[in-house]
Amino acid sequence: MHITFHGAARNVTGSKHLIQLKDGTKILLDCGMFQGLQNADDLNGHFGFRPDTVDCLILSHAHIDHCGLIPRMVAEGFKGTIYCTPPTMNLARILMADSARIQTSDAEYANKHRDRNSQELEVPLYNEEDATAALGLFKVVEYNEEFEITPRVKVLFTDAGHLIGSAAISLKILEDGKETRITFSGDVGRYGDMILKSPQQFPQADYVLLESTYGDSLHKDLKPIENALHDIIQHTCMVRHGKVIIPAFSVGRTQEILYALNALELRGDLPDVPYYVDSPLADQATQVIKDHPETYNKSVKEVMKVDADPFSFKGLRFTQSTEESIALNNDPRPCVIISSSGMAEAGRVRHHIRNNIDKERNTILIVGYCEPSSLGGRLLAGDKVVNIFHEDHDVKAEVKSIKSMSAHGDYEDLLRFMSCQDPAEVKKVFLVHGEYDVQQHFAKKLEAVGFKDVEIPYQHQQVEI
């Protein structure tokens, strides 16, 4: 058999790994959208394989860089089953539909500009009808219940601790009387996450496809997340009378911020300003997360003994309509706006940044990983001028970050995740979902603990196993 790495290969988005067996069976692990890259449009327009030849898809979790191209794949002829956990299906349902709406809206907005300049018009990758059609192929499977996708292939989901429903995928494949064990980590969460349980151990594997986003980093801030949020909001809103704009993914990161702000209220330290979550998707996602308390860790369950809703607090409002979103930009009063996307590459947050980036009293707060060429990445890099909606804007607002707010494990978490494996039995580790220089650094750490064969595949590379 062989594995071909069609995404998240020496970069952190577009997760797609295709396993082809000797009998021709094709199993796709994830079908994610490339985000933030300069050539993302070209990459998203070409899978590197024919979707109508794939037999089934196994989805690790619902983030768009892992599920975002499923509707396009279905539109191009894929008719197989999509396996995932129940929370992943619930989140993918709203995420794929929202992605379709954002693409359509952004294309319409961009085309108003392009029409005037006689440029080629933008076309969405897919629409809401495609997203609905894709959902009809989903089949849910619980954690720790081995299931069969063909007589020769069995699969097990274990909790990866990255997002509700996120799973490491362990396959047992029988060929020529020999069993081969392959595990795809998906995205690995943190041990001691704010909300979720820690990653589970997974069965011994012969081959491991391991994410490596933070393979050279430790998530260690000098102060707790809620304290950092308090100080930034207090200084920006109460002292400088400005706005705090927080690009945050609607699923996972937004709920972590709300949980931290709720903690400030519980201890009496929440600055008295309006707090807006300007993302209809985040509203829906928060409800999905509330519907799955079985995924919470012990700390959250303790909080719920005194606060039935740990994601709500005084002054919080979820905006819905475009008119409400526009009104936030026209309101000069200090406030906190949490809006997607996390890399500031799509959605309403780009409008908020555009309208507030030229005022020194405001703060743009980055709370997660941003691909270096994304708008969020350029702001983190200290660019003094950034392009938003085809116009250059001077960066006068303060740009801050809370580095420890990541749903991805750092290199200590990743090594701990791999500690359930006997390195002598692992024939090869493939590092995916990471920048190449980071992966090179992390490969040495894996080798130091006994994993002797670590490979960093490139885009569309095919490897025989």
Describe this structure in words.
GO terms for molecular function: hydrolase activity; RNA endonuclease activity. It comes from Mucilaginibacter agri. Keywords: Hydrolase. This is MBL fold metallo-hydrolase. InterPro entries: Beta_Casp, MBL, Metallo-B-lactamas, RibonucZ/Hydroxyglut_hydro, RMMBL. There is one protein chain. With 465 residues, the protein is of the alpha/beta class. The chain has two domains: 2-217 and 407-464, Metallo-beta-lactamase, Chain A, CATH 3.60.15; 225-401, Rossmann fold. 31% of the residues lie in helices and 22% in strands. It contains 14 helices and 22 strands. It has helices spanning 40-44, 64-67, 70-75, 86-116, 128-135, 225-239, 253-266, 280-290, 298-303, 322-330, 349-356, 375-380, 411-418, 436-448, and strands at 2-7, 16-20, 26-29, 56-58, 81-84, 138-140, 147-150, 153-159, 167-175, 178-184, 207-211, 243-247, 275-278, 316-319, 335-339, 363-366, 385-388, 391-394, 398-401, 428-432, 454-455, 461-464. A seven-stranded mixed sheet has the order 6-5-4-3-2-1-22. Strands 7-8-9-10-11-20-21 form a seven-stranded mixed sheet, with helices on one face. A six-stranded parallel sheet has the order 14-13-15-12-16-19, with helices on both faces. Helix 6 (225-239) crosses helix 7. The protein is globular, with a radius of gyration of 22 Å. It starts with a strand and ends with a strand. The mean pLDDT is 94.
